């Protein structure tokens, strides 16, 4: 008899502990089992086991409760390896999150330790007929049998659909002359959209960067800062090649699905079939197959978005995070609010691997670490083809002389440059970082703004579908004919979005164009097709949201237009300046990446703003100096870290009670270098009340144990939910 220590599938703080069950047979750690829990059959996850030397009844009596047997075992082998199991425990402790919830985040749908996972994809097999020549007695073969065997020709294996089901076939199978063989199939077939080089020769500057990373013994984390077009990807590929030579696995993260097809094409072109892919655009079946392929060791290179950081690579030797400044690496919405860069650092340390953070516009926090000597800075200061950075022109949107009656979207200088570029047979990228037709809809009479009933955020107007749409929770309604408040039939639009840009572009320019945004291209194959057509110069103009702003190498793009550079500047987020600078700088960098110097036009209402000025001059160092001063004055990261407590309940008094408890608790501790902010204003979204308390702190270990004690005070409370977020990007 064995006693199993089991985690139950429910992600609830009060259930974040082991439960004891019995089993007649030994069960390994990391295996899922069926258990009866609170009169329901659910899935449990085995975290420990031991053989019981005494009678089960006596053992139960000594503990004071009955130990129930498990109902069944789901897995023949553990579904997580030791490295990922240790990582899950580390993450649970670091992020104050139930261990079972961490495991459910790490694993693909079919392998999650929860009951609904049982309905997920299963292993698919391709079946073949295999000819066993040693068992053939040609003298005793019938004509039909000889004819059937001849279909194998020179091959010993045939796909099962190549032979029809017959009596002769059944006889040959029963005699062992033909055997049925099953091979695990892979349902993901990558589409190579670009034909990349099979060999790479590094420039002197790239070679120096490569050598710095490979030969460094003191540091394991590197910031590879390279201007746009400097060839960071070539350095990545050579680092991966070195890892392969050392029999080590490599993990490459990209921020968006839009960039995944490019990196996939690049890596498969160079390395072949040993590349696996993990991102949200894969079907659950494809993701399951790719995960299993990685776990078996059939792939030693993994490329994907944020969640790929949990890939079960064996002998991990290298982690690359491209565009490391991108906010998509931080999970701020779902239950387990992790940062992929933090997870990468943990995995690199435990595997003695190298972690490379790459960007033309590193995050302020990452650059601050480099300047303090906590990580090593490696720079690429020149573009790959020695082409100068683009010439940049700033157009003041407040100057009416810059626009005509023909368009409120395109300035006269931009119209002129687009026409010249098209006439020269070159390509144009136009960025508008807003989806839909307008970012809000207002009544002209009473000023009523249409908002999402769940999120309380302005609804975007999508003219094509004539709907009002929430980009946060996907709530949507048809645009009403009259204002629900005053019955007026007259509305006005907010800032324009990509649909408005498209409408005016068609009026001004009689040329075919492509649109790249997540509303019309939210699947990988759609993105691949658009990028492929633009790369092959079938279209001269690409209009898109921030999906067009980074990572793309188009040889014939000589002009970039940024139609509304102010989208993020006034966003209520301490990172808004950094996000704006990065978006503008990265977009400008799409122009003139090869033989000819490019041009860029920025349209803005804040011509003198330091963010716009430094981005226009491609001057990261000056931007960093100015921004780091602002961060220091306001005690923002990297000078102080932020811990957010989000309190939610259907009862207003419960939210007020627990936000006050959290505030008073931290204030009573009188901790050094710890600030308490809030509670914030009480919000009501639908039937849910919420507010936030923020804790600013310098060192995590100063508050860690106090947070754990605080959790004990409310974890059994059923009427309130408290979500903890370390360094939220939405702060």
Write structural notes for this entry.
There is one protein chain. The protein is α/β, with parallel strands linked by helices. The chain contains 19 helices and 31 strands. α2 packs across α3, α2 packs across α10 (340-351) and α16 runs antiparallel to α17. The radius of gyration is 30 Å and the shape is globular. The chain starts with a strand and ends in a 5-residue tail after the last strand. The model has no long low-confidence stretch (mean pLDDT 90).
Secondary structure class reads alpha/beta
Highest CATH level, the class of the largest domain: Alpha Beta
- Euclidean distance between termini CA atoms: 52 Å
Just name the CATH architecture of the largest domain: 3-Layer(aba) Sandwich
At CATH level 3, the topology of the largest domain is Rossmann fold
In short:
The protein is of the alpha/beta class.
Secondary-structure map:
Elements: E1 2-8, E2 19-23, E3 32-37, E4 40-51, H1 56-63, E5 72-73, H2 82-95, H3 99-106, E6 125-131, H4 143-150, E7 157-159, H5 167-174, E8 178-184, H6 204-215, E9 221-226, H7 232-245, E10 249-253, H8 260-271, E11 275-278, H9 284-296, E12 301-304, E13 316-322, H10 340-351, E14 354-359, H11 364-372, E15 376-380, E16 391-396, H12 412-423, E17 427-431, E18 441-443, E19 460-462, E20 467-469, E21 476-478, E22 491-493, H13 498-508, E23 513-516, H14 524-535, E24 541-544, E25 557-562, H15 576-588, E26 599-604, H16 610-616, H17 620-634, E27 641-649, H18 652-669, E28 674-677, E29 683-685, E30 688-697, H19 700-714, E31 721-726
Parallel strand pairs: 9-14, 9-15, 10-12, 10-13, 11-12, 13-14, 16-26, 17-24, 17-25, 23-24, 25-26
Antiparallel strand pairs: 1-2, 1-4, 3-4, 3-5, 6-7, 6-8, 18-22, 19-20, 20-21, 27-30, 27-31, 28-30, 29-30
């Amino acid at each position: 008899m064995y006693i199993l220590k089991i985690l139950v599938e429910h992600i609830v703080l009060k259930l974040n502990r082991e439960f004891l069950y019995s089993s007649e047979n030994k069960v390994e750690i990391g295996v899922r089992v069926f258990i009866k829990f609170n009169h329901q059959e659910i899935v449990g996850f085995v975290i420990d086991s031991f053989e019981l030397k005494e009678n089960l009844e006596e053992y139960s009596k000594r503990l004071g409760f009955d130990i129930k047997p498990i109902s069944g075992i789901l897995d023949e082998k553990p579904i997580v390896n030791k490295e990922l199991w240790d990582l899950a425990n580390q993450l649970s402790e670091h992020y104050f999150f139930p261990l079972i919830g961490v495991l459910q985040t790490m694993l693909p749908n079919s392998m999650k330790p929860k009951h609904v996972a049982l309905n997920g994809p299963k292993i698919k097999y391709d079946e073949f007929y295999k000819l066993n020549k040693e068992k053939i007695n040609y003298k005793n073969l019938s004509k039909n049998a000889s004819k059937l065997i001849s279909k194998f020709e020179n091959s010993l294996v045939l796909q099962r659909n190549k032979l029809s089901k017959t009596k002769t076939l059944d006889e040959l199978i029963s005699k062992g002359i033909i055997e049925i063989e099953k091979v695990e199939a892979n349902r993901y077939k990558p589409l190579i959209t670009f034909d990349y080089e099979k060999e790479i020769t590094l420039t002197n500057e790239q070679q120096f960067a490569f050598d710095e990373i490979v030969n460094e013994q003191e540091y394991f984390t590197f910031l590879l800062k390279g201007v746009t077009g400097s060839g960071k990807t070539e350095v990545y590929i050579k680092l991966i090649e070195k890892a392969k030579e050392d029999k080590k696995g490599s993990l490459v993260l990209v921020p968006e699905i839009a960039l995944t097809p490019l990196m996939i094409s690049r890596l498969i072109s160079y390395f072949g079939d040993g590349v696996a892919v993990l991102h949200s655009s894969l079907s659950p079946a494809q993701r399951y197959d790719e995960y299993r392929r990685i776990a078996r060791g059939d792939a030693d290179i993994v490329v994907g978005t944020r969640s790929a950081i949990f890939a079960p690579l064996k002998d991990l030797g290298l982690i690359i995070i491209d565009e490391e400044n991108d906010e998509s690496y931080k999970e701020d919405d779902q239950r387990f609010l992790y940062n992929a860069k933090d997870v990468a650092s943990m995995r690199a340390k435990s595997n003695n691997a190298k972690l490379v953070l790459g960007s033309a516009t590193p995050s302020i926090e990452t650059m601050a670490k480099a300047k303090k000597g906590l990580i090593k800075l490696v720079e690429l200061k020149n573009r790959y083809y020695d082409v100068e950075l683009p010439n940049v022109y700033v157009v003041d949107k407040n100057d009416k002389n810059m626009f005509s009656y023909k368009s409120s979207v395109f300035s006269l200088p931009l119209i002129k440059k687009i026409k010249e570029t098209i006439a020269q047979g070159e390509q144009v990228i136009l960025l508008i970082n807003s989806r839909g037709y307008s970012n809000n809809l207002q009544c002209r009479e009473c000023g009523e703004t249409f908002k999402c009933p769940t999120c309380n955020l302005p609804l975007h107007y999508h003219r094509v579908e004539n709907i009002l749409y929430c980009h946060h929770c996907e709530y949507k309604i048809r645009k009403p004919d009259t204002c629900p408040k005053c019955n007026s039939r007259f509305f006005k639009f907010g800032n324009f979005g990509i649909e408005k840009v498209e409408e005016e572009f068609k009026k001004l320019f009689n040329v075919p164009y492509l649109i790249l945004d997540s509303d019309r291209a939210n699947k990988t194959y759609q993105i691949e097709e658009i990028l492929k057509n633009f790369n092959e110069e079938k279209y001269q103009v690409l209009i898109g949201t921030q999906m067009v702003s980074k990572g793309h190498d188009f040889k014939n793009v000589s002009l970039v237009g940024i139609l509304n550079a102010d989208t993020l500047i006034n966003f209520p987020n301490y990172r808004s300046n950094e996000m704006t600078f990065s978006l503008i700088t990265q977009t400008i960098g799409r122009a003139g990446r090869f033989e000819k110097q490019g041009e860029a036009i920025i349209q803005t209402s804040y011509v003198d703003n330091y963010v716009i000025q430094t981005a226009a001059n491609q001057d990261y160092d000056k931007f960093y100096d100015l921004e780091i001063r602002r961060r220091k004055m306001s005690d923002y990261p990297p000078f102080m870290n932020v811990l957010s407590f989000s309190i939610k309940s259907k009862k207003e008094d419960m939210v007020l009670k627990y936000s006050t408890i959290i505030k008073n608790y931290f204030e009573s501790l009188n901790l050094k270098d710890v600030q308490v902010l809030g509670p914030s204003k009480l919000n009501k979204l639908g039937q849910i009340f919420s507010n936030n308390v923020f804790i600013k702190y310098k060192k995590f270990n100063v508050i860690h144990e106090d947070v754990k004690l605080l959790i004990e005070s409310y974890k059994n409370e059923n009427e309130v939910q408290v979500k903890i977020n370390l360094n939220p990007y939405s702060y």
